[in-house]
Amino acid sequence: MKYIILFFLLVLNIGGNAQTSDSASVLAKNIQIDASVVEKNIQLMKEIYANDLVFTHGGGKRVDSKTSWISLVQNPDMRFVSRTQDSTKVETHDDVAIVTGRVDIVLEYKKQKTEYTIRYVRVFARKANRWQLISHL
């Protein structure tokens, strides 16, 4: 499903500007981030998140590192049922890419379901010739 969405975004050119190779790669990574959290795909998370990741949660009261965020996702009491992207835009600058958007989240914690939406800014850097997330705000 995630690849179908990426295909339509690229083919239909949502957002008005032609997608460059870099912005398409970053967009694919951005979609993979949310899919990896839902799937608890820790290996993929370790690849996509840079070692110096700074993950700031809404309100700014909690800030996670790569290790602490992955540990949170692995918590057996917590399950992200879905994380659906909307209004995503990519802006590239050489080896830095800024992604803005909205994600609708369905979270189950200790068998209680919560639904909420966040707006975010994610910053990717090209490291060792691959895009990695360095910041989530």
Number of helices: 4
Average pLDDT reading: 88
Structural class: alpha+beta
- Beta-strand content estimate: over 45%
Query: C-alpha Rg, in Å?
Result: 15 Å
Q: Unreliable segments (pLDDT under 50, ≥5 consecutive)?
A: 1-19
The SSE order reads HHHEEHEEEE
What is the helix fraction of residues, given as a range? 25-40%
Strand arrangement, major sheet: 2-1-6-5-4-3
Alpha-carbon distance between the two ends: 26 Å
- Indicate the overall shape: globular
How would you sum up the major sheet? 6 strands, mixed
Total beta strand runs = 6
Quick tags:
6-stranded mixed β-sheet, 137 residues
Sequence-ordered SSE layout with sheet pairings:
Layout: H1 2-12, H2 21-39, H3 42-48, E1 49-56, E2 63-64, H4 66-74, E3 78-93, E4 96-109, E5 112-127, E6 130-136
Parallel strand pairs: 1-6
Antiparallel strand pairs: 1-2, 3-4, 4-5, 5-6
Helix pairs in contact: 1-2, 2-3
Quick structural overview:
With 137 residues, the protein is α+β, with helices and mostly antiparallel strands. The chain has helices at 2-12, 21-39, 42-48, 66-74, and strands at 49-56, 63-64, 78-93, 96-109, 112-127, 130-136.
